[in-house]
Amino acid sequence: MRWRADFLSAWAEALLRKAGADEPSAKAVAWALVEADLRGVGSHGLLRLPVYVRRLEAGLVNPSPTLPLEERGPVALLDGEHGFGPRVALKAVEAAQSLARRHGLGAVGVRRSTHFGMAGLYAEKLAQEGFVAWVTTNAEPDVVPFGGREKALGTNPLAFAAPAPQGILVADLATSESAMGKVFIAREKGERIPPSWGVDREGNPTDDPHRVYALRPLGGPKGYALALLVEVLSGVLTGAGVAHGIGRMYDEWDRPQDVGHFLLALDPGRFVGKEAFLERMGALWQALKATPPAPGHEEVFLPGELEARRRERALAEGMALPERVVAELKALGERYGVPWRDDA
Length: 344
Known about the structure:
Helix content: 40-55%
Order of helices and strands: EHHHEEHEHEEEHEEEHEHHEH
Shape: globular
Structural class: alpha+beta
Number of helices: 10
Distance between the termini: 10 Å
Strand order of the largest sheet: 2-3-4-11-5-6-7
């Protein structure tokens, strides 16, 4: 069964409004979750809505933040006031754009936020306005440091994006071997996972998603270093929670998350010039697409290209959702008087 994106967005927004979120927050969360599902990134899609609502009900998410912003030249610090991460991040995107238009670059640090979904969505928004973008967020510790066996850092994703004549280049990656959301999905589907993804409580690799205690850093010491980079930019630099100072979204119900984000927008017009930049990006894109594919591959893709194709197809044909996710959403809708539809 498939559902239209417009129905899912409207349904999620209506439910969040009934749960107490203000209109900007409800719109932002619905947008972020549905856009993730459209791109085939179910680990950051509507799968997350039930826990978002639970944290709102528990008083751990601010339903109507004012989001004060303190500007200092091309730099700004945004207080998320424990609002929903997508609402906070979209405000940071607006601030980064404004700063970059005035100064050539805009760097925005965010503190006291919550889980914001796909980092690439916010980088893509900046690139759609002509900027080269860099977005990071820290997260609750789920990853062992290289050589360790206890959780010390989050999956700490980073994303960058740049416009090109052919489309938007968007790279979005966790600094762990996998996002924890993908482990959740494997548990729900009863599937095995690559043993490189995670370790059990003794620090041994496992292919059983139910035995995963912690994730492994991407590429060993390289991913560990990248995770530290993200932690410094998103947490240490901004005044947000750092490592175990971040509340666990699913496991801790006595404190807010205090997640930190970092967004950077660069105006190509202040470097080689906008037209020259697009021309050079177009040539780079074309050269990569012209690379002969290796055995087992039909073509070479740029980061974000597959997700863009999935999104286009899902908009035309509708989106499929896991049965368990649909069951949870239906139950949530019944509780708040926002009926789910199987014919939408």
